[in-house]
Specification:
This protein is of the alpha/beta class. Helix content is about 30%, strand content about 30%.
C-alpha cells in the first residue's frame, strides 16, 4: 500500500516568458513527483503516468530519484505551450498534442491511501475512474483539466458538465481563482469554496496566487498567507507544488493550517527556479517559521 499515488500525464512544455523561451517536461505528475522526491518521507510514494516511448527519459529521470513509476503506453505525449506575461499569475495556453486517456483497467493494480488525479485535459479521467478510486482511498483532484476544452490547438475555458455528479466523490479539490469562478459562478473565494463544499467536497483548496490561499474544511475557512519568494523566475507548476506539499503533510497527520502553510511555502520556493521544486523540507519549514505571516481561522 502506497501512502500517496499521483496519476496523470507527463507533458512536453514550451514555456514563453517576456525574457525567454525554454522547453521542459511538465504536467501535474511531473511536478508532483519531482517535488515530493525532495521531501524527507517520500519513499512510499508512487507515480502512474502515460506518455509516448519517445519521452521515456522523463520517467527514467524520476526513477533515478528512487520513485516507483508505473507507465501506461500512449501513442502520443501531451504537448503544451504556456505563455506568460509580466504578471506570472496569468497565462495563455495551446495544446499541440494529446495523449491517450486513462481507464479503470489501468489502475486496478494500484493501491494507495491517497490518490491524486492531475487532470490536464477534460478526457484524462472519466467519471467511472473517479467513482472507482473513491472507493479505494482518499481521492484528491486538481480540477484544471475538466475546465479546458481544446478547439484546434487553442484551449478554451468551459464549465464541467459532470461536476455535480463527480464532486460528491472527491475528498480534496485543488482549484485556483480563475477556475473557481468558472466552476461556481462566484468571484469571492470564500463563497466559491463553500459552494464546492456543499457539492460534497470535504477539503477545498483555493489558490489565489500572490494573495495566498484558503482552505475550506469542517465548515471553517482557513486563510493561508503567501510567502514572498526571493525572486520569481517561473510560476509553472506552482499549483501542482502546492498540492504536493498539502497532501504530503495531511498524510503525515498535519492540521489544515499546518498543511496549507507548508504547501504555500513550498510553492513559493518553487517559483525561484525553472522547473519543479528543488529545495528541501527544511527550506520550507524555515520559510514558514521565519515569516511573520500566520494563518487565520474564520
Amino acid at each position: 500500500m502506497n501512502d500517496i499515488c499521483c496519476i496523470g500525464h507527463i507533458t512536453l512544455d514550451k514555456i514563453i516568458t517576456p525574457n525567454n523561451i525554454i522547453y521542459l517536461s511538465g504536467g501535474t505528475s511531473y511536478y508532483f513527483s519531482h517535488g515530493i522526491s525532495h521531501l524527507d518521507d517520500y519513499k512510499n510514494y508512487k507515480l502512474v503516468t502515460s506518455l509516448a516511448e519517445t519521452e521515456m527519459s522523463s520517467v527514467e529521470e524520476i526513477r533515478k530519484k528512487g520513485i516507483k513509476v508505473k507507465v501506461i503506453p500512449s501513442s502520443k505525449t501531451v504537448y503544451f505551450e504556456n505563455k506568460y506575461g509580466t504578471n506570472q499569475d496569468n497565462r495563455t495556453q495551446r495544446v499541440l498534442a494529446k495523449a491517450d486517456p486513462f481507464n479503470v483497467e489501468d489502475l486496478k493494480d494500484v493501491e494507495a491511501r491517497i490518490y491524486h488525479l492531475g487532470s490536464l485535459l477534460s478526457n484524462d479521467f472519466s467519471l467511472d475512474i473517479i467513482k472507482y478510486l473513491s472507493g479505494r482511498g482518499i481521492l484528491s483532484l486538481d480540477v484544471q483539466g475538466y475546465l479546458r476544452e481544446v478547439r484546434g490547438d487553442k484551449v478554451y475555458s468551459v464549465d464541467w458538465p459532470e461536476k455535480l455528479e463527480a464532486l460528491k466523490y472527491i475528498d480534496i479539490l485543488k482549484i485556483n481563482e480563475f477556475e473557481m469562478e468558472l466552476l461556481t459562478g462566484y468571484s469571492d473565494p470564500i463563497n466559491a469554496a463553500k459552494q464546492i463544499g456543499d457539492w460534497g467536497v470535504k477539503e477545498v483548496l483555493v489558490t489565489l496566487g500572490s494573495l495566498g490561499s484558503i482552505i475550506y474544511a469542517d465548515k471553517h475557512i482557513y486563510k493561508i498567507p503567501a510567502y514572498p519568494p526571493k525572486r520569481i523566475i517561473d510560476a509553472t507548476g506552482c499549483g501542482d507544488t502546492y498540492a504536493t506539499g498539502y497532501l504530503y503533510m495531511r498524510n503525515k497527520g498535519a492540521s489544515y493550517e499546518e498543511a496549507g502553510c507548508f504547501a504555500a511555502a513550498m510553492a513559493s520556493i518553487s517559483q525561484e527556479v525553472h522547473g519543479p521544486f528543488s529545495g528541501t523540507e527544511q527550506d520550507i519549514l524555515h520559510m514558514v517559521k521565519c515569516s511573520n505571516l500566520r494563518p487565520e481561522k474564520l
